Amino acid sequence: MIVFGIAGWSGSGKTTLIEKLIPGFNARGLSVSVIKHAHHGFDLDKPGKDSYRHREAGASQVLMLSNDRWVLMHELRGAPEPTLEEQLRVLSPCDVVLIEGFKAAPVPKVEVHRPAHGKPPLWQENPHVVAVAADVPLDSPLPLLPLNEPDKIVQFILDYSSRHES
User: Where would I find the Molybdopterin-guanine dinucleotide biosynthesis protein B (MobB) domain in this sequence (predicted)?
Assistant: First the structure.
């Protein structure tokens, strides 16, 4: 399983890039999963719905399913946030896992960097950034990938992963 991060400052276009990378992997016959780390709390449920009421009543897990999809909600209830490794074990088998967030995790990452946002590049401080995807030319010792050409980024990730298999 290829595990690859997409890193960058908030608003840099990480989610948009991931959205464009997934069809590129799928076109190569690869299944893709995504792990997104949210820095702030979130809730996919709505007050008043049965599943929300079950969680509010104290259920640790609520699994909802239909003929289209299923979702498992797990309430931490004060327990520590699971590690990336623990979350990877929860995923169904797949070929590629793209990770948004988990900046410090020891997995290779492509940084989405837009100088127009006025933020410093992450690669200078993060040893796990192995390439930079940008919309303008940059001065970087790392491979520079064209942000608006997702197929080239997909190919970079596949090539990099095949060279660094453990």
Answer: 3-135
**108-119 tens-digit pLDDT:** 999 999 999 999
pTM of the model: 0.88
> Quick one: tokens of 82?
């699971």
Task: Please state, as a whole number, how many other Cβ atoms lie within 10 Å of the Cβ of residue 70.
Answer: 9
Q: Could you tell me the CATH number of the domain that includes residue 7?
A: 3.40.50.300
Asked if residue 79 lies in contact with residue 87, where contact means CB atoms within 8 angstroms, the answer is: no
| Helix, coil or strand: residue 97 | strand
For residue 24, give its domain range: 2-42+81-163
Asked if residue 92 is part of any domain, the answer here is yes
**Strand blocks (E) in 44-162:** 61-65, 70-74, 96-100, 109-113, 129-134, 144-146
